[in-house]
Amino acid sequence: MKHRTAFGDTPATRCRYYREVCDLAAVVDPPGLGRIIVRATTVWAVTMPAVLGSGVRAEIARGYGVTGPILAHPRSNRWSFLIRPDLPDDVPLFAEMFRYDVSVIRTGGTIALPSPADLDTHLRQWIEPPRCPVRPSGHTVTGAVRAVTGTRGCRGMRIRL
User: Fold this and answer.
1) pLDDT tens across 85-99, in order?
2) Residue 114 in domain
3) Which residue in 3, 8, 85, 91 has the fewest CB atoms around it within 10 Å?
4) Radius of gyration of the chain (CA)
């Protein structure tokens, strides 16, 4: 799904939308290529295989009605959920998520966002575009991963990765 009209036609206008409407500290980097990034500080991301992401999206929607921003990386077949930076620095949690090919981009990392410069190459695209500064808790997303994979006694569909 393309959102050109909502975001504008240039990397600069899209970046301004991300900053002003979505409270994402987005910058065009490097300016010549038009790639848009945000340094993980006030926003983190949880990245996973697309098949798991689809189940996590459905689980969150069932529980909360909305999922928050989700972006796809079509070439690697992965999805990233933008989250509030509220997960603890917890080795057992990260090891558990690692078993499902799930990673957390924490403070200091870089999150690449969809840009009009990406439209022809399909590097990144929104599954659920950001519409405001609200993002789900990291606990919500990791809890949905547990529910979908059937770990820790949570209900939910089971999938094989």
Assistant:
1) 999 999 999 999 999
2) yes
3) 91
4) 15
